[in-house]
Design the sequence.
């Protein structure tokens, strides 16, 4: 994380309310949400700040409490720079791939507005897994569902882009 203002901030009840409303944590019970609410740190970024860059080491997942971010990918053409893969807002999450895989970040994330994020480290996520196996399973299934949805949307966008300007039936 770069240039963030980190702290527990926002209060446990407010963090739990954000987590309760986030689809990735849907169907968790009070004690499970309480554990995660205590584990999350609140971090703030100003509009235009980079949350992380592609290839940065990463072991943290983020849930957007307030504001919006954009997920960017590099192009092979240095003159082109980055293109927007996704725009995410309150309740949505990002950074889960590096947290789960313990691999470098696959994209750059930048604050579109002033943004408040809840950060959940891999260490705390795996402590959650040991203590709340059923809750952990629910979260992993929710992540898988949302990754599948994101992949489906990306495939549709790529298909539309690929076939723009081509006559029907051309491959």
Sequence:
């Amino acid at each position: 994380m770069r240039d963030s203002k980190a702290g527990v901030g926002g209060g446990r009840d407010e963090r739990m309310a954000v987590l309760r409303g986030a689809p990735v944590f849907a169907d968790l019970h009070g004690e499970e949400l309480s554990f995660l609410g205590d584990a999350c740190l609140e971090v703030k970024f100003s509009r235009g700040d980079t949350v992380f860059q592609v290839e940065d080491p990463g072991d943290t997942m983020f849930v957007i409490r307030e504001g919006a971010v954009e997920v960017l990918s590099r192009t092979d053409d240095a003159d082109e720079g980055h293109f927007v893969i996704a725009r995410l807002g309150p309740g949505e999450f990002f950074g889960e791939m590096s947290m789960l895989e313990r691999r470098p970040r696959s994209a750059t994330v930048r604050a579109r507005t002033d943004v408040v994020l809840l950060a959940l480290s891999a260490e705390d996520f795996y402590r959650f897994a040991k203590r709340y196996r059923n809750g952990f399973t629910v979260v992993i299934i929710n992540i898988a569902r949302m990754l599948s949805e994101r992949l489906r949307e990306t495939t549709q966008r790529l298909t539309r882009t690929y076939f723009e300007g081509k006559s029907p039936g051309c491959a």
Summary: The first strand starts at residue 5 and ends at 7.
